[in-house]
Design brief:
Order of helices and strands: HEEEEHEHEE
Number of strands: 7
Oligomer: single chain
Shape: globular
Structural class: alpha+beta
Number of helices: 3
């Protein structure tokens, strides 16, 4: 489906899935999330909202589904984290180099960051595949 054909929540959900956007941070067409953004129809009024720790805050209102869906699509595409799919978190730089080498060998676009997992003295590297590259690295996903 082309982006220009997206008019409904269902079509947006399908497009996001087809293009390997993670649905863990976006509630589109009713999927449950713990934290993130969502789009819902509340008695004919569409709402773009953010939810965190059970608290939902409506950020935008829309009179039509098409307007709401277009806004959601634009917003999600602008989020550089939206199509990053988690492969794993590593505390060994040897493991990091091994995984990155394999990603490069397969021509998979990826992104990494380093976080203080257990404090400043416990740094971990997270590795994410970009978009549908995740389909080609299922064997690398850390369980």
């Amino acid at each position: 489906m082309k982006e220009t054909e997206i008019k409904t929540e269902f079509q947006l959900e399908q497009w996001l899935k087809e293009n390997c956007y993670s649905m863990n941070s976006y509630s589109i067409n009713g999927n449950f999330i713990y934290e993130g953004y969502g789009l819902e129809n509340n008695d004919g009024l569409y709402q773009w909202y953010y939810t965190e720790r059970g608290e939902k805050k409506v950020l935008e209102y829309f009179a039509t589904e098409n307007d709401a869906v277009q806004y959601a699509l634009k917003t999600i595409k602008a989020d550089e984290h939206a199509n990053r799919n988690y492969i794993g978190m590593y505390n060994s730089q040897i493991e990091v180099k091994k995984v990155i080498s394999e990603l490069e060998k397969r021509g998979i676009e990826f992104w990494t960051d380093i976080i203080p997992y257990g404090g400043i003295n416990d740094l971990r590297t997270r590795i994410f595949a970009i978009g549908c590259g995740i389909k080609k690295v299922q064997d690398l996903i850390k369980k």
